[in-house]
Model the fold of this input.
Amino acid sequence: MTKKKTIFFVIVLLGLIAAYGYYEYSRPLADLSSAKSVAQLNANDLYKEFENNETKANEKYLDKVISVEGDVLKIENKNNKQSIYLLTESMMSSIICEMDDNHKTTSVTEGQKIQIKGLCTGYLMDVILVRCVIE
Done:
């Protein structure tokens, strides 16, 4: 193989790798509407599991799809993101459900009991679910 053919082959190969990388990077995330939940809990039970033993709760729920039922504490719209806060027994903490961009809702009201499915990303002061959809 000549030097020009080798250089051409390497450039084409790098171009294909770059195109595939861009495709994977820009691919939209899967919608969780049809995803199966690994657990169904109420907001208080989920919060208590993280508060009592965060390590064990992380093993059970971290990076997994879960369904949570609870009363809506508040609805927040910031920076084009909608978050629904579910009430827990703790005055300082709640379950924060960041809604999927395609599943924002105006039909939810404060005090309403709802069930939300989302991807658990962990616990700081609140338990956080992302890419949420209302079930």
Observations:
- The longest strand covers residues 65-78.
- The mean pLDDT is 90.
- The domain at 32-134 is CATH 2.40.50.140 (OB fold (Dihydrolipoamide Acetyltransferase, E2P)).
